[in-house]
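Students often ask why inverse folding is considered easier than folding. One informal answer: many sequences map to the same fold, so there is more than one right answer. In these notes we will look at a single instance of the problem. The structure comes first.
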């Protein structure tokens, strides 16, 4: 009984940490109305809603089309480099959209290499607005290019493991591969597509770096303007509360789009798709799209950043980059470790004592990922304001607040692999240990956790990748003279010093790239084990 009370207390504390700041933001809706809010409500709010919706819906639709096509092509067809591309097309996930956006704005700008090539080699001077991507269409291009892997991963995983028998049955009935894809495979991938598209939508709604650099009037830029421009935290909280309601609607829409349909195989024997050779126009279109996406999303931006890093090496304060690297590594490591630990506590409590209350607490913990980073940062800030005013304490920002915001935002990222790990090991060994007289904590440490090392590594690495790339939380909650690599890149870009931001950008990509490779390798080894077991 004492052990159960202890685990219940731990889970409840984690849920309170998750819920209190969010409730603080919602309470901002009921704060007194001032002149700033009246101005926003009368002249700006409708534009924020329209532009946010247009940007999110367009980016997600483009991401669905690109990711679904890429996943189908690398799974169903043979062409040069297919195996390499099936992994490499995940790699743009290591590049934060704001870094990709800064790079392409500089590449396509009036002083960029494309304009220079036209002027110096072709003798043609393009107009200043030629290839200008600092608009909503350019933002859609950037988000599609660097966020499509969220959809690509889940769709490719579905096709690898579940679509072979369906394709064979359809072909035996005389249908072509293209017809089978649109009439059989595509409807069955709906749940996978919706799940990946929802993650992509959350990332678009949470972004600040791209939308601020591209001059878009969306909610995240509006929150920063209200807080920093108008010096009005109350209006910022009202905007954050509205954005929270919008995101909650998106999350509910995901559940509605998934519906109650579910699909399962009558046999445990699942056959992967056998790739076939290309013919006709597909010989050109399929490799061109796959290799073109890889080059545009990874090779060009990384290559350009390497060139800029070499070019601007003498202009960079490298000691500041080292300090930012150390700060990024430390807060991301501590944040990922804390989120993994909390995920284990909540998931273990739900597994050992599967009551309605424990399941409800587990669901509450995953709400944070659907809330934009700007909203979470303001919610933590409002909570600190309240505590400071209630207890008469001085208000000081610290890296601990950044870690707290990381915990709220990314606990769901660690929860998914932890829950999957617990499902894989089952409860047989846990029950055997309990029968031998060991308590829940000792059983977890000595029996369960050693059996799910892969899930623990996955939970830590997934959270670490997102925390390394995080920008809005650090911008709002960082103390004076505290910079991470993301804020360093943002500051350089804000000062129109894109080449000088390249070294910090490459370090962010490197820190995220290694965990992505490890996760892909882990997924491949898991697939091989599954096929062996079959």
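Output (designed amino acids):
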């Amino acid at each position: 009984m004492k052990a159960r009370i202890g685990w219940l207390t731990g889970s409840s504390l984690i849920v309170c940490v998750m819920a209190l700041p969010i409730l603080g933001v919602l309470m901002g809706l009921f704060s007194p109305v001032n002149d700033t809010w009246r101005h926003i409500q009368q002249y700006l709010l409708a534009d924020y809603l329209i532009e946010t919706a247009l940007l999110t819906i367009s980016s997600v639709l483009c991401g669905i089309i690109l990711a679904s096509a890429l996943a189908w092509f690398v799974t169903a067809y043979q062409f040069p480099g297919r195996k390499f591309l099936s992994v490499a097309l995940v790699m743009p996930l290591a590049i934060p959209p704001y870094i990709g956006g800064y790079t392409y704005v500089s590449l396509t700008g009036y002083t960029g290499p494309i304009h220079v090539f036209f002027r110096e080699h072709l003798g043609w001077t393009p107009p200043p607005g030629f290839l200008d991507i600092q608009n909503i269409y350019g933002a859609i291009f950037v988000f599609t290019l660097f966020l499509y892997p969220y959809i690509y991963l889940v769709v490719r995983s579905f096709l690898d493991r579940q679509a072979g028998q369906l394709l064979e049955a359809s072909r035996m009935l005389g249908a072509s591969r293209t017809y089978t894809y649109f009439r059989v495979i595509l409807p069955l991938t709906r749940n996978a597509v919706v799940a990946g598209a929802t993650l992509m939508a959350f990332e678009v709604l949470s972004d600040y770096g791209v939308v601020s650099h591209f001059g878009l009037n969306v909610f995240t830029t509006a929150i920063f303007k209200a807080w920093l421009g108008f010096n009005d935290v109350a209006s910022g909280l009202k905007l954050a509360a509205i954005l929270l309601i919008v995101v909650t609607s998106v999350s509910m829409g995901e559940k509605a789009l998934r519906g109650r349909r579910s699909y399962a195989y009558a046999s445990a024997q699942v056959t992967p798709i056998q790739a076939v050779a290309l013919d006709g126009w597909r010989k050109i279109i399929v490799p061109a799209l796959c290799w073109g996406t890889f080059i545009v999303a990874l090779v060009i931006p990384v290559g350009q950043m390497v060139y800029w890093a070499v070019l601007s090496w003498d202009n960079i304060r490298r000691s500041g980059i080292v300090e930012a690297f150390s700060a990024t590594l430390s807060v991301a490591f501590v944040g990922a470790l804390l989120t993994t630990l909390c995920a284990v506590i909540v998931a273990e409590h739900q597994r050992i004592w599967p009551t309605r209350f424990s399941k409800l607490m587990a669901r509450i913990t995953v709400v944070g990922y659907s809330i934009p980073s700007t909203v979470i940062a303001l919610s933590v800030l409002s909570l600190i304001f309240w505590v400071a005013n209630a207890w008469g304490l001085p208000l000081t920002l610290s890296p601990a607040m950044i870690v707290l915001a990381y915990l709220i935002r990314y606990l769901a990222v660690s929860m998914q692999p932890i829950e999957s790990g617990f499902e894989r090991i089952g409860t047989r060994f846990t029950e055997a240990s309990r029968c031998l007289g060991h308590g829940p904590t000792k059983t977890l440490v000595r029996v369960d956790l050693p059996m799910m090392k892969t899930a623990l590594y996955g939970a830590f690495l997934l959270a670490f990748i997102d925390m390394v790339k995080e920008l809005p939380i650090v911008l709002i909650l960082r103390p004076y003279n505290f910079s991470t690599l993301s804020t360093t890149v943002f500051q350089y870009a804000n000062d129109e010093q894109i080449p000088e931001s390249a070294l910090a950008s490459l370090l962010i990509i490197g820190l995220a790239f290694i965990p992505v490779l490890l996760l892909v390798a882990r997924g491949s080894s898991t697939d091989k084990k599954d096929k062996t077991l079959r």
